[in-house]
Amino acid sequence: xxxxxxxxxxxxxxxxxxxxxxxxxxxxxxxxxxxxxxxxxxxxxxxxxxxxxxxxxxxxxxxxxxxxxxxxxxxxxxxxxxxxxxxxxxxxxxxxxxxxxxxxxxxxxxxxxxxxxxxxxxxxxxxxxxxxxxxxxxxxxxxxxxxxxxxxxxxxxxxxxxxxxxxxxxxxxxxxxxxxxxxxxxxxxxxxxxxxxxxxxxxxxxxxxxxxxxxxxxxxxxxxxxxxxxxxxxxxxxxxxxxxxxxxxxxxxxxxxxxxxxxxxxxxxxxxxxxxxxxxxxxxxxxxxxxxxxxxxxxxxxxxxxxxxxxxxxxxxxxxxxxxxxxxxxxxxxxxxxxxxxxxxxxxxxxxxxxxxxxxxxxxxxxxxxxxxxxxxxxxxxxxxxxxxxxxxxxxxxxxxxxxxxxxxxxxxx
Length: 414
What we know:
By secondary structure, the protein is mainly α. The protein has helices spanning 19-35, 38-55, 60-70, 77-86, 93-103, 105-115, 127-153, 155-162, 174-194, 198-218, 221-242, 247-265, 267-284, 294-309, 320-332, 343-364, 375-390, 397-412. Helix 1 (19-35) runs antiparallel to helix 2 and helix 4 (77-86) packs across helix 16 (343-364). The longest helix is centred in the middle third of the chain and has 27 residues, at 127-153. The radius of gyration is 22 Å and the shape is globular.
């Protein structure tokens, strides 16, 4: 066993009473917090902050200057800048403080990940990274077993609820949870790329297939959209590199076959598809009520009306829900007080064109570098961008932790 090359050994050798172990534990607490508990998430975030501060204790000012000189990590601060600017013209400071609080990670986490060292160094085996990915996948497996057990014991009741537009119960919001499962599928691909350990590679393949089926059982549409978009991205990369264009029609056939089989053999998927058809027919007929998918469409219409009325600076992020409430009532006779179901529209309506442009620069700026991003980092950006189209992913603690945390981790691991 001791004579095996490092890439063929399970990477326990990096663990002990050292910073690598603490980092792995904190990152896995972070992942567990995303799935199970905001309390765990807070512990992990403050633990990472303490570990990062320990790294700069000898020369803090030099490390602070290096952070701003690097540019990529500090760009994320622009997202918080949009929130701070809007404070100057937001009347509802209670709502503004909520927006400020959930954006605090955009100040803290970039500093943490920049100051933390590269624990794997320049080697090709990446043992710390493998441990983090394996642990994250195991957290997904535990949640899968518990959730499907609950689903099986309440099969009829939950399917009936899905038919009324609800979801299989999950520990956190179903969309955020489904995104975590998709991230774990991406990690399975990374494990296959990095590891030469036979059982770990088989585990990654089996987990990726299981999570693929699981996403169809969960039947969270945005999660499925992102899943297939990421698969398409990897298929296109393979086609471009290999020149085998026959892969594209084969992929299209597999997608059609997958959806057909899911519709006929997965009751939760069947219920979700039937509900979507019913709800879209209601939208076409002008019948809109609370908690329907049609509500997403009218929220975009209301948000667009606010953009037209306040194109430069927006309504103020603190006042956005108040202004949306007025538009829902005036345009659709609905008693709602919700932001647009779209992260871009929320910034556009709440902070105007100026705020939207600053947000886009801050969030996507780290991609503008000479070296091409890794597949995992680019995949995280695809996941974030598509999720922004259907919800305010980074307007909540779990969504912010999921998107920002794994983006920064992917940047650190480049």
